């Protein structure tokens, strides 16, 4: 059975299009709010939505998403509540949804229980940025059985061995972190990205989405020419706190840039 | 991951590298001032009226705490790996001072991350680090203590990994840190073993150390693991376990994964990390080095805790009976000795790792007592 995420990439590939994958923090500042935003993102042509799960120690995140995480925690949002939220969301939308969560909430939930409940609720994939594939045996096994996609990360420092390992463990797509650093870092479009993505292409034919540091439509456009999908997080989360109209205009401008 | 692999290779190579080991032991002797004395605390022993108490004087190591043992080892390693810059987290400021010192010694750029709360508690050490040429960066997020400083240091490391080595200060974090830090700290136990045999002609009955991340405890205990000696690690009981304001991971925590490490963790039912409290910044941490639960489960080390008040009382008691002001961290181990020693016979021997000196805490303790300096 092919997953909703794989199907999305196949469909896009046929149309020679690239995926637009916005990230928002679930429950920032409330889950009702998140529901409205997901709807807006879908209306504006997003292909996949990445939902962040708040955590007290978001190691891979820069200040913008750290603050979003703090706001969501203040609203008492937990992994369990995010899963229930996706279940509710599934009554109104079938857009592929990927959860980005740190490992400890999953560990505490129980890997098997988490995979079962998430899949059952309608989650399509999961990214655990602080869990390398080397340590993810249990999560991968449970996810394969349930057909939940596991998406692992590659970075500019990844060696060829690492690329092979991550490609093998990943389903749905491979998440390429465009910079050494944390979310919201500054992207540098100096040709090295192109080279590294082609290194990954040599090892796998799985779709590659690029994230961390993409913030302007120009950057999104440049990244979409190299990759199969563009992930934009911090720049959206930041605007969520400014004007909602501006956010919508911004999302549309990203969508138009990614073709 | 590649950075951890690189570090692992460099570390295991350095263990076989005679030149590296020669330089390390030369610096231990001439720069850190090792071996540190093992001191028989006669008046403290008489006051408690039980077991004979020895203090392993890590407070006399250069910079005033055991942290320098690890920092010097890791700056040498950083230099060997060709890194230009080192970074570190610090809670009480001792590891920050030790890292800044090591960086100055070998000529590396240095940046220290420290929680806002800890910068307030340890203002003296903040100034010392700056004096040593380090940049001290405030971490105003989360609980604003050690845990958040580690998060921020890890974020820096992922960003600047090509040029920077992260000198983690305790036996925590991803492999190879727990093994490597233990290795650099195990000099404490090796010396102690020889010193107690010289002084008493036998091994001690008890070994005692405070446990934050757990590096001074492992450093002392590691040479004695196979001897069947009673070893006790003392965690921070804060205002008491029942209040929730503490950092006693064994008394109040459960298994979890934080900062690349699976160990006991103070967390809620959803896997979020709980805030901690301790009068001592160095013990104010939600998790514990992974080897500690392992040794606890094997029945080799026992763990208990001392409250803020007990530690403060021991802080004053040692100052008055011995003329030695301990760090508030080490005062937790002393507090357990205050409880235990009177119950033991005068033939029994306790060795405490006096992991640091209390100068850094004097101002803070005065403030707690309502005294304006």
Short description:
The complex is a heterodimer of chains A (259) and B (373). With 259 residues, chain A is of the alpha/beta class. Chain A has twelve helices and nine strands.
Q: Over the alpha carbons, how many angstroms does the gyration radius of chain A reach?
A: 17 Å
Beta-strand portion of chain B reads 15-25%
Structural class of chain A: alpha/beta
- Derived from helix and strand composition plus strand pairing, the structural class of chain B reads alpha/beta
Number of helical regions of chain B:
16
Number of helices of chain A: 12
Q: Strand content of the residues of chain A, in percent?
A: 5-15%
Q: Biggest chain pair contact, residues each?
A: A-B, 34 and 28 residues
Number of DSSP-assigned strands of chain B: 12
Taking all residues together, what is the mean pLDDT of chain A? 95
Question: What this model shows, in words?
Answer:
The complex is a heterodimer of chains A (259) and B (373). Chain A is an alpha/beta fold and 259 residues long. Chain A has 12 helices and 9 strands. A 9-stranded parallel sheet of chain A has the order 5-4-3-2-1-9-8-7-6. In chain A, helix 4 (79-89) runs parallel beside helix 6 (111-121). Chain A is globular, with a radius of gyration of 17 Å. Chain B is an alpha/beta fold and 373 residues long. The termini of chain B are far apart. Chain B is built from 16 helices and 12 strands. Chain B has helices at 2-16, 18-32, 42-48, 67-80, 94-106, 116-121, 123-131, 146-160, 177-185, 187-200, 215-221, 249-252, 291-297, 308-322, 328-340, 359-368, and strands at 38-40, 52-57, 85-90, 109-115, 135-139, 164-166, 206-210, 230-238, 254-258, 261-265, 301-307, 349-354. In chain B, 46% of the residues lie in helices and 18% in strands. At the A-B interface, helix 3 and helix 5 of A face helix 8 and strand 9 of B.
